[in-house]
Amino acid sequence: MSSAKQSATWDLQLRQLLLPKLDHDASECEDAIAFDIHTARFAVTDGATEAFSAREWASKLAEHWVRNESTLTLEEFRKWVATEGRELHDSWNGLTLSWYSEEKARTGSFAAFVGIELDLKTATPSWRAIALGDACLIHCRGGALLKSLPLSRSESFNSAPVLVASNSALHESTMQSVVVDSGNCENGDVLLLMSDAAAAWCLRRFEDGDFDADFLTAKDDEELRRFFDEERQAGRIRNDDLAIVRIEIKRRIN
Amino acid sequence: MGDSFSGDSARKKAEFVSEVVNHTLHDLVIRCTKTEEVRNYYHVSVIGYGRTVSTCFSGPLAARDMVPISEVADFPLQVKSSYKRVSDGAGSWVEIPVRYPVWIHPAADGKTPMCEALIRVKDILQRWLAQHPRGFPPTILHLTDGESSDGDPDEIGRQIMSLGTDDGPVLLFNCHISTRRSAKIEYPTEETSLPDGFARSLFAISSRLPTNFLAAAAQLGVHALEGSRGFVFNGDPSSIVQFYEIGTSLTGMTPYKWMDDIDRSELT
Q1: Is the ipTM of this complex over 0.85?
Q2: What is the pTM of this model?
């Protein structure tokens, strides 16, 4: 857990967890987490397993997005993704590929994306978010679910979400599904960024009246890993990579 | 399958079917490709029947009844290169290189030894199931252009449908294609809508479409209901393409749509 001083009034308490699928190495994990305390930006991405260089695309999107200072409108986001996608595809030039890798590369890579930027400089802290796919922002207050986007119900998760494509030829249709939103925070609010399996599980727990957003802080890293391994072994969470970022907004005590 | 589909085209059904099978194999390989590795999510068998009943693979895969998809990927008979026009995303069109691997060449013969072919399928399945008792149940996509010439396939069909893994029964789907201009019947729920005994006999040995396959059908705009059988009668070229797309759409995956890659104007 880390604490970041963002303003004279507000502190952020952060917790992150990144786990590969059960029986997989960390190097196989296609989820990615990035944050930059200076820009107050956070991102979770989830590379599509079937895509070419999914892990690379997911990491690139998350890491580059948190370094930016805009891309929070659809038009900015679209231009930015096109630039990042071109760079990715250019990096494959000169590779000697089998016919199937060449075909796969031609289609490009895909990832779910959720990014948020916090504004802590005012009396009322706020967030702005942009998301495409099934990686989610979940805003909790007092243990209750305030908002979840781009998906808000556990049954909305399926295996074919519209994702961020590296191939800009696909953007005309896919970018129509981008969700841009914003919200205000109060002292003690918790923002969760989660890849799909964790988000589906979390929303289901909320729907069952059985979610405690504080549990992420009550366990150490090893306890959390064991907990999520058991949940996946029991089938309560789909056996998928898990990426979770917990951000708690706390008023500073002077 | 030496004759053509109804209409003006001289193109042979066999050529079209082999093209569809090659596209399907291409699709399965691409689905299993993770960057530069092909993962063996599938094992594939392609059996043809006419004068003889035999595997359709040749070259390095000759005489192989069941082939892991990574080996299918590595051993096409040839890889054709071409160019395809696609949108550049900015209002213009660009030509990009594409690859068309070929594993199966068209073959046609007058006979239809359906029972012998299904007996061969059952034998292959039994060997595979003994080695993979927990695997996803195999799916048989059976395409025929006519009635069985070696007896009623009902018994052997039912024997195949009685096989399975811990995860469920083997799925047997049947697609009958026709050269006549008769109305096609796709994924019926009951046999009363069928025109004759041959159609009813294939219906009887067609598995119900599980939920995931129904979802795939819906994504393709194909009308299929809870209780629909994996069965097409008097199918046309579109039916064949959709039959393979639905039949290979496992685990709720989005069907890989490559129908646009095939120039259907030549087929009707």
Answers
A1: no
A2: 0.75
